[in-house]
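the two lines:
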Amino acid sequence: FVKQGKKWDKLNLTWGVRRYPTKMRDSTGDPEHMYRWEIQREFRLATEVWGRVSRLEFTELESKPEEADIIIDFNTGYHGDGYPFDGQGRTLAHAFYPGHGIGGDMHFDDDEPWVQHQDSDNTWERVSLFITAAHELGHALGLYHSDVEGSLMSPYLIRFPSSFRLPQDDVRGIQELYGVDEKYKEDPWPSTSTTTTTTTPRPAATPRPPPRPPKSDKPDTCNTEYDAISVIRREIYIFKGKYFWRVDAQGNLLPNYPAKINRFWSKLPKNLTHIDAVYERMTDGKIVFFIGNKYYVCRGNQELLKVGRLKNLGLPATLKKIDAAFVWGYNGRTYLFAETMYWRFDEAIQHVELDYPRAMDMWRGVPYNIDSAFKHNGTTYFFQGKMFWEFDDFRMRVKPKSPALSAPFWLGC
Amino acid sequence: VPSGDRDKRDIIDDRVQWYLMQYGYLPASDMETGNLRTERQLREAIKTMQRFGHIPMTGELDAATRRLLRTPRCSLPDVMPGEGNDFRIRVRR
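prediction for all of em together
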């Protein structure tokens, strides 16, 4: 087994199915499809697989799944993260390793022929939802894929008998992460075909981390996150809320900053509350701002050349905002980042390149949902919260000394 | 990858290389940096994939390997990138 590196800092985890398969027997009446309660039961059994051998406890939030630690969705194709599904066959599902927000969530391909475990067969025409769910839950708890033959965390779907028993490799992995359940004895696992009606008590919903407080007004130079950052005309511009700072080419913070964005960038929307991302175009020096689901192309700070929607650039119509944008020094290409994914943008045709988005994991060590990013003096930096990560372009990973506090380094606090 | 007189079905084409990158058998970062790979790197990557699929580790795109490429699977990578792997705890028989 392999521990991915992240784990939950608590033993009682909540889970819930937020988006069910589009075809369920409740509405279609088709015996090929599962009932809603059968789908829930397959997931409940999957939680018992891991809960039984460790000190983990699972509680289903049936009425408010969106508040659970582990949110389960059935999706098809591109569905808002860097792992688009591909129709029936090939990729079945994926999960995010433990953490806030999308961490712990599990996504299943709605195009797959999901069936109850005892109805699955050897043809891949009927895929066991229970086995796939138990595997993905292993990821959501912090386990990576295992190359041990017959393990549940093997990447390839393998067949297990209807009386499923968690293989020892997986038992050792989860116990290494969350300890041993004293009551656990190595006896055969009750067959999944027995109808176990576990009435999970409806718990008080565990609140998910409160959303970041709305952007306050004049920011504290030495104690704030950065909405956007970029080198423009050899100076560093750092944006926060309605204000921005300027740092000259020698690294000195110019006096009388932070100043109001609207005062200097007078052509941007008068009612702007913040900037999401900004970069200076390599090709012609224009400055591109991203605010919500729109972008603004400026020549200098007095001329607005173009306003457009993110979807006009080939980004998903559902994308609400960009987190960061920069020109990567390694290849001179423009990259756009949002949530758990990123795109490469072709300036020549003003459109994102094909076979994007890709998963943020490519930029190893950089967290999801970054606030901003830029290249300065040949080095790439990523920002989230009040910290920043220095990135090693050649090794495609953050440098060991990262992260560090932003304010002392960038604004001389 | 020089084709030479090798069996045409054994040419490790872009789709196979994409698969190897997608599941961590080749540095996914090559997709961004455009680094080319050597024949040996490709063969090693295929052997690692065969190890996870529990089929003979020939390093070739033989029939068993082509079947493996079509086997339904989880979409997360199999090999943790770089030296971050915690092989210390991987149990080897």
